[in-house]
Specification:
This protein has 17 helices and eleven strands. It is of the alpha+beta class. The strands form four sheets. The chain has a four-stranded antiparallel β-sheet with strand order 1-2-7-4, sandwiched between helices. Strands 10-3-11 form a three-stranded mixed β-sheet. Helix 13 runs parallel beside helix 15 (331-344) and helix 14 runs parallel beside helix 16. The longest helix is centred in the first third of the chain and has 20 residues, at 103-122. It is elongated and about 75 Å long.
């Protein structure tokens, strides 16, 4: 059996994974209870698919694969040491994992090849199911129990060799394999991620309030980005890496064995031109971002995010595009464009908002325009009598 385990470890690396560990197929009791309590307390609000029944199913490997005996936990690093630092203002920032091609596809392809290769080695089919992100499995719980990494206070899994810049997947199998022990590492007294999260989303060690996380607001939120969250989002237009960028464990990391292919849709500094995003048609959006994680946010989502980033950058060169957006775009985007114009508050921006009070007929957008104009009035210097 040890031979097979050794083979699995080296073969996983050959298939392009950076980390591989094994855990049992026992129920993930602590993590199930933590996730259920997170759902109950409203800390997963905004993700309608993250239900109690999903958590219950996902924490019992036997339910996902009857006869399951072991879980092979895999980690794939996505950190490109050659990534350039961000290139100044005027652009929107994309989280590192989305600067490469969609990892779900890359990882599932490698996992399939891995399982097929194991079957060839064993000269018999094996019962196996594999998961990456979009399945009910609690990916981080499996990684932590297998010793692939440990839970950081940011809730990200930290690994000794690749920091938290790893994506996680599992192959549940009926093979009986010797489990690896969990790591004995912890964050110690460090609280950098908690202190530096701009929205206060890490409400306690190991607890993220989903709706406060920039990653949720810029990727998953299909509606209005709450007014009070907008200034805190800064120039992030897809995801957020702050709790990872500040983490001391991430200071020294190894490079991936077989990097996921980069996407030309995002530049090497991980930035997107905000005006270009506002002007992109549905067809152009699809052509450019197909095969990347950015598709998840959809064009409307990315345009809302572009408005928020332009507003936060107070970028006057964005005013003409925002004014055009206020006239033509989807309702949700018009609302966020109004907010951005209120933040930039140049005479052109204010005049476009005033004109829109007569031409706009959507109640939500009118509300945004009213709030934006009120904001500009508040910011005007008070004249002396
Ligand atoms: C929903 C989700 C989100 C949501 C909610 C995040 C959250 N913290 O739950 C949002 C959209 C905000 C999000 C953001 C991000 N995500 Co996400 N997300 C998921 C998803 C689909 C489910 C996560 C989940 O189960 N949450 C439920 C809560 C209860 O779990 P948890 O936060 O991990 O909390 C655990 C701990 O509290 C632990 N616990 C409880 N008590 C105690 C006590 C102690 C002492 C300890 C040590 C632990 C502990 O138990 C809980 C359950 O395991 C997973 C994929 C998957 N299927 O698992 C990816 C996943 C977690 N995301 C991932 C990534 C990369 C991100 C981002 C970095 C993306 C980005 N750059 O924008 C950010 C990171 C934000 C953050 N700080 O978490 C990776 C994480 C990789 C890693 N190294 O950890 C995953 C695993 C996807 C993947 N397969 O690679 N994500
Ligand atoms: S991803 Fe950003 S907003 Fe979310 S917890 Fe980390 S630092 Fe906070
Ligand atoms: S910043 Fe500090 S507390 Fe947060 S995950 Fe990293 S080591 Fe842990």
């Amino acid at each position: 059996m040890q031979d097979l385990k050794t083979h699995i470890s080296s073969y996983a690396i050959e298939c392009g994974f950076d980390l591989v560990r094994i855990t049992t197929a026992e129920v993930f009791t602590r993590d199930r209870d933590a996730a259920l309590s997170r759902v109950k307390s409203g800390q997963m609000d905004g993700l309608p698919w993250f239900t109690e029944s999903r958590v219950r199913r996902g924490s019992v490997p036997q339910e996902l694969l009857p006869g399951a005996r072991s879980i092979i936990c895999l980690g794939l690093s996505y950190l490109d040491p050659e990534d350039e630092e961000k290139a100044g203002s005027g652009a929107g920032n994309v989280a590192r994992y989305a600067r490469v091609k969609d990892y779900h596809r890359a990882m599932k392809r490698r996992m399939k090849a891995f399982v097929r290769g194991l079957e060839e080695k064993l000269e018999s089919p094996i019962a196996a199911r594999w998961y990456v992100d979009d399945g009910p499995m609690l990916d981080r719980a499996a990684a932590a129990r297998s010793g692939l990494g440990w839970f950081g206070k940011s809730t990200n899994i930290l690994t000794p060799s690749h920091g938290s810049w790893v994506l996680l997947g599992q192959v549940i199998t009926d093979l009986e394999l010797e489990p690896d022990p969990p790591l004995k590492k912890t964050c110690g007294s460090c609280v950098r991620c908690i202190d530096d999260c701009p929205t206060g989303a890490i409400v306690a060690p190991f607890v993220v309030d989903n709706a406060r996380c920039i990653s949720y607001q810029t990727i998953e939120n299909r509606g209005v980005i709450p007014m009070e969250m907008r200034p805190l989002i800064g120039d992030w237009v897809f995801g957020c890496d702050i709790c990872q960028d500040v983490c001391p464990v991430n200071r020294k990391t190894e490079s991936p064995v077989l990097p996921i292919q980069k996407t030309a849709a995002v530049g090497p500094s991980g930035q997107l031109d905000l005006v270009e995003l506002l002007e992109v048609t549905e067809e152009e959006f699809r052509d450019r971002f197909q095969g990347t994680s950015i598709m998840r946010a959809k064009r409307v989502g990315m345009q809302k995010n572009a408005c928020v980033a332009l507003g936060n950058n107070r970028d006057e060169s964005g005013v003409p595009a925002l004014v055009a957006t206020l006239k033509t775009a989807d309702t949700l985007v018009r609302g966020h464009a109004a907010w951005a114009l209120g933040q930039i508050a140049t005479p052109d921006a204010i005049s476009a908002l005033q004109q829109a009070t007569t031409s706009e007929d959507d109640p939500y957008v009118l509300e945004e325009i009213g709030a934006a104009l009120a904001e500009t009035r508040q910011r005007l210097p008070t004249s002396k009598a």
